[in-house]
Amino acid sequence: MSERKVLQKYYPPDFDPAAITRTRGPKPVGPKVQTVRLMAPFSMKCTSCGEYIYKGRKFNARKETTDEKYYSIAIFRFYIRCTRCSGEITFKTDPKNMDYECEKGAKRNFEPWRLGGGAKEESKEERLDRLEAEEAEKDAMGELEGKMVDAKREMQIADALDEIRTRNARNERVGKDGEVEVGAKEERDMEREAVEKEIEEAARRAFTTETGERVRRIGEEADAEVDISGKLEVRIVDAELMPPPSFKRGIKRKKDFSAALGIKKKVALV
To answer: If you write DSSP's letter for every residue of 179-247 in order, what string do you get?
Structure first.
């Protein structure tokens, strides 16, 4: 470490800088097989001894760059050893399905492409059937939307017709000279008002004298006099019976709780 930090370096006497040739070319590619540390990307079962290897277990693996490519994406192969029988297990990357593919030495416990059929390539007939089903679904949705629009338009037309009918009925009530005819309801109101006026007039006539004065009942004047005199007498009596106020301090007697507590007092003999 200290040699690369010095300012002067030692050159032997027979050193000839002209003898050094400068070559140009591609950079040296690293080794095709590398030793890497990885974790198992999926749970698997060894085909030799039946040992289960769970996902996430760490291994010292050999990484190999294959000649296969998927859309210019390099595919790598990994070699690991079984933890029980040391059998070789090989798997490689699968960029098409964004997963890993187990090649030999082990079997995957769970294969996700079997659920959705992601790795299965569909034929032309299946693709056409799928496209036709999608188009039919789109047509069904468009038909449903059209029905909803038609129903909304019909409701708007019905509301407009009702409004027109109401306006026409209101216009029919108007006479030729422009005077509004009184409806049945208004006629009933007028009849009721006339009857009430007749009853009021009959009552007024029954309780008025020939000179036009209102007739009073006999009990009204007596009751009024009794009420006034009674109130005055009660007020005078109450004022006479009320004692004068006293400002003397009274003696507060203590309560006897002996009986409540069950204590008996001795009776004095003398």
So the answer is: PBPP-HHHHHHHHHHHHHHHHHHHHHHHTB-TTSPBP--HHHHHHHHHHHHHHHHHHHHHHHHSPPP--
